[in-house]
Amino acid sequence: MRNYTIGPRFTILVIWGITIALGGCQTSEDPQRPNVILVITDDQGYGDIGAHGNPAIRTPVLDRLHGESVRLTDFHVDPTCSPTRSALLTGRYSTRTGVWHTIMGRSLMAPEEVTLAELFAEAGYRTGMVGKWHLGDNYPLRPQDQGFEEAFYHPAGGVGQGPDYFGNDYFDDTYVRNGVLEETEGYVTDVWFDDALRFVEEHQDEPFFLYLATNAPHGPYFVEEEYAAPYREMGFPDVMARFSGMVTNIDDNMGRLVAQLDSLELSENTLLIFMTDNGSAEGWANWRGQEGTWKGFNVGMRQGKGSEYDGGHRVPFFLRWPAAGYVGSREVDALTAHIDILPTLAELCDLPVPADLDGASLVPLLDGEEQAERTLFVHSQRVPYPIKWRKSAVMTERWRLVNQDELYDIQEDPGQENNMAEQFPEVVSELRAAYEQWWDHLTPSFDGFVRIGLGADAENPVALNPHDWHVVDQSQSVWNHRQVENGMMGNGYWAVEVVESGRYTFELRRWPGHMDQPLEATEARIKVGDQEARLEVAEDQTAAVFAFDLVAGPTTVQTWLVLPDGQERGAYFVYAERK
Hints:
Elements: H1 12-15, E1 35-41, H2 60-68, E2 70-76, H3 81-90, H4 116-122, E3 126-132, E4 150-154, E5 174-177, E6 180-183, H5 188-202, E7 208-213, H6 225-233, H7 238-263, E8 270-276, H8 310-313, E9 317-320, E10 330-337, H9 341-349, H10 363-366, E11 376-379, E12 392-395, E13 399-402, E14 406-409, H11 425-442, E15 452-454, E16 462-464, H12 481-485, E17 493-498, E18 502-509, E19 523-528, E20 531-536, E21 544-550, E22 553-562, E23 568-569, E24 573-578
Parallel strand pairs: 1-7, 1-8, 2-10, 3-4, 3-7, 15-17
Antiparallel strand pairs: 2-9, 4-5, 5-6, 8-9, 11-12, 12-13, 13-14, 16-24, 17-22, 18-21, 18-24, 19-20, 19-22, 22-23
Helix pairs in contact: 5-7, 6-7
């Protein structure tokens, strides 16, 4: 399935004198190919670690890892979840991969993108992912379709979102293992690390790549009281206390992982990375902190998650690999980003790697060399189609050009309080020109859709949900369980690809299939491409089923449920099956 137009791949870094590593090298000490564990937490910011100066957060394991690692201190990601993950796994700017939102069909990564997992698998590694994927929950977009031979995860961007199993609340939840629902016991982060430890133990005698992506401390902020209570006692507001407790629980689990690597004698030749996906969501709430309460810690940066200012996208990055000499407390202050991780790991692990990446290998920096001047870009779109200059930052080691007309000397003004645009118009012009060129090479990717496959042997039937609706009006977007429970009025269409011509049925439901609850409608309608149909619905009817003969190729699916009062909304859940 290749319906998504990516357009020419553009590497601004070449313009600024940075070349891309093509793999095939290791460090001068030339250890055996390492195991690689990449841990990424969700919504934990740079300041949500004790070793970064936070006087209240309890993260003793991360503090110790901080002291044992090479640390990238000016490391940047996208301001929100899915974009960061797509860029991290491909070495390409997220918008180029089809990802610039976390919902509305714009969190789906183009299946033709080459991922880290695919590169590791091609090189003979065992590949596994645990936790949060958030790049598509249907074929061919799932982790098991993108290079991971083992995948254990929750759908969508968080527990309680559209495709997640109804009733999940972080405790004893039902998740997905390689496409099959699986009941679990225990707290969500503990469950993820349990499975990560299993994967490491089972594959300890062969090289492996483990992508461990926790959904914590992303909301909803549920955690055992023993973790939240110490922060309440320190005067934290309730939400921040629970958020911080989730961080400490992650830290405890990191301790379990590090201990297992030690006990299996894998620590020496395991390349362990710890990072986060965007700025802090609840670790810093200065703008709403009440007098006399803890207002959080953000290392002096401006704003947090979702922001184009540094507080939204500068995050921690620790790398430890003792066998290669990447150990001990050492800082790399050069400007770096998520797009650099794929080419870096490719060089360190002797992986095949595409030449048309946006990132650059950081191996020279890790080995103590200097980096040539470079320019990087970040934006937070969160709209159906990207808008030029929207919530954007153009970054060099000294400067940040924000939203086209704000210029900050980040070395002298890390809080981004003093706009220097009038004093340095030539810098503004130079950075604007760089952005214009970058933007021009992104635009071919804006018009296409990343499509959900229907009728593939790998997934049949296919469960569609409103999280992936394409909507014209964002107020029509229904993306979480609370909105579904409340019967929110909304509608949109799914962009799909019919993989194989044939007879297809579409089962429309108001609730997920396993709940078997009434449609709460008097009429159901559906449009698949240019084919339309309608059915009257009985009061206690749980589903409306339609059948069409479809030809292979791209199309769209949209539904309507007419309520007793005459209002209309889309069927939140649709099950499409090739017969």
